Amino acid sequence: MPGTTTAISRQAADVPEPGTGRRRTKAGPNRWVVLVVLCASLLLVAIDATVLHVAVPAVSEDLRPGSIELLWIVDAYPLVCASLLILFGTLGDKVGTRRVLLCGYALFAVASALAAYSQSASVLIGARALLGVGGAMIMPATLSILRQVFPDRRERALAVGVWSAVAAVGAAVGPLVGGLLLEHYWWGSVFLINLPLMAVSLPLGRWLLPESVSGSDGPWDVLGALMAAAGLFGVIFGVKQAGGGEGLSPLCWLPLAAGAALIALFVRRQRRRPHPLIDFGSLTRAAFGTSVGCIVLTVLALVGLALIAAQYLQLVLGLSPLQTGLRLLPLSVAAIAAGLLGSRLLSLLGPRLMVALGFVATAVAVLCLTGVGQHDRPGLLVGGFVLLGFGLETTLFGCYESMLSEAPPEQSGGAAAVGETAYQLGAGIGIALLGSVMNAAYGPGVRDAAGRSGIPASAGADASHSLGEAYEVAGHLGGGAGEALRAAARSSFVTGLHVTLLVSAVLLLAGALAALRLPRRMDGAQPEPGDEGERGAGEADAGGGRPLSEGVTQS
Q: What GO cellular component term, any one, is given (predicted)?
């Protein structure tokens, strides 16, 4: 395979078939079997990213975290994961992606057990951070191996479509399984579902996955990797503090400034090194850099809206956790469909039009959802979620495929780490940014209503932190005052939801404009070294109007 060296005998090596421009797999498992194992890894991480959403009210009731602690419980996973993706992604290029992946599996299992039996908010935050370390080891490894075993772009587009559809399956299964478990068990059970998945993935991964390391020379830049991790942590931590209403606090701007400085030093260091961890020259190419930026915008909207939507369905409409998971199911089903159709849409529309239309469809869905209120409108919710899921997944598919195709094979781990860092940055910033927008619109309304109703100022201040706290304060007050506070909090939450949706729509439309920098056609990427004959055959197939699946190279 171009740019890699065999580390064990099971490595799948692509070699030209005599007399043809195609390649066949020499030794090792079929690459489509490898894809199945990689998708199982992704399913694990995707489930853990969404399963906690429906459990947030139960966690709040049991552990009694403060508003900042609650944000940390949700955000610790993406924060730590995003900080360490470059470290573990580039480490995989040096010591072997399979080795890093299997270590991530084991750590994920240990952290899941610790999270399930946490007795305090601080222990749960620590367990979620440990899960983030495991996730940082797993996610770039799956994309890196996928990039290596699918050198042909047409095959890779199909593989990325399956990979992204599995991510949507995880988003669907997470809330459903979490809601079902919460109907019968305590909130910690949502983490225990990781253990059987780990028990299966660990031996299968050791047996089936190919091991490969980068063919590039030079030592692994340990100092650079640590600088990147610390810089990303500081930036996201500062954003989190700003999202908690501490924008002028030293706890916000000091980590933000220190993180930005470390990232700038990291970039400078990598540009000067003969063998950098990340080739920042690739980021300056339109397709790669634009894809990374679009991933951030897409996930920013997705994660922030998903968390707020779960709270709306449970706390405003009064649905159970299981009912909440079922209401969110259309979003994930539509995303699955978009992932499975992604390779065909990409060949028909090209990256530029596909990603731009995905952003526009998502913005339209978000604007439609501004029609929700304090009363249930299931038809509007289903229609909005379907369009939202299809648009988001279409956008993510086009971005990931363009990003992977631009990356040199020998830097697949680093490129995958950049893409997954963008994903996790978008998740962390999305919760902080949209959460702060929500709080800015929600808090003043609750405090004003409390003052007009004669409710003590301290009670109004507590109720302004979150809708869950407002319900708790209203329960202590009781009578007419409690009911007035409950109604005011619901009304303010819906108002804040509308404002948040409008902000998300603006960001999504900005993403549609940014997508205009992507290539018009998927064959616009530069061919990989040694793949010219294979690409020529693939382009001839595409020009003849054959479906993508018919042009897949047989192993």
A: plasma membrane
Q: How deeply is 401 buried, as exposed, middle or buried, from its count of CB atoms within 10 A (0-12, 13-18, 19+)?
A: buried
**CA-closest candidate to residue 29, choices 96, 94, 98:** 98
Longest dimension (CA), the chain: 86
pLDDT digits (tens, 9 = 90+) for 344-359: 888 888 889 999 999 9
Burial of 306 (0-12, 13-18, 19+ CB in 10 A): buried
SS3 sequence of 260-274:
HHHHHHHHHHHHHCC
Residue 18, judged by CB atoms within 10 A of its CB (0-12, 13-18, 19+), counts as exposed
Question: H or E stretch including 250?
Answer: helix 250-272
Burial 260-271, CB ≥16 within 10 A → b, else e: eebbeebbebbe
Element holding 399 (H helix, E strand): helix 378-406
DSSP annotation string for 413-452:
HHHHHHHHHHHHHHHHHHHHHHHHHHHHHHHHHHHHHHHH
Q: Of 380, 356, 386, which is closest to residue 368 (Cα–Cα)? A: 380
Where the chain has pLDDT below 70, the residues are 1-29, 49-50, 53, 168-169, 171-173, 175, 211-218, 240-248, 281-284, 303-304, 307, 407-413, 424, 428, 522-555
Nearest to 150 by CA among 139, 165, 161: 161
Among 514, 244, 302, 308, residue whose Cα is nearest residue 426: 302
What are the tokens at 532? Answer: 């010219």
- Of 339, 424, 525, 393, which Cα lies nearest the Cα of 140? 424
Q: What number of other Cβ atoms are within 10 A of residue 431's Cβ?
A: 25
pTM recorded for the entire structure: 0.72
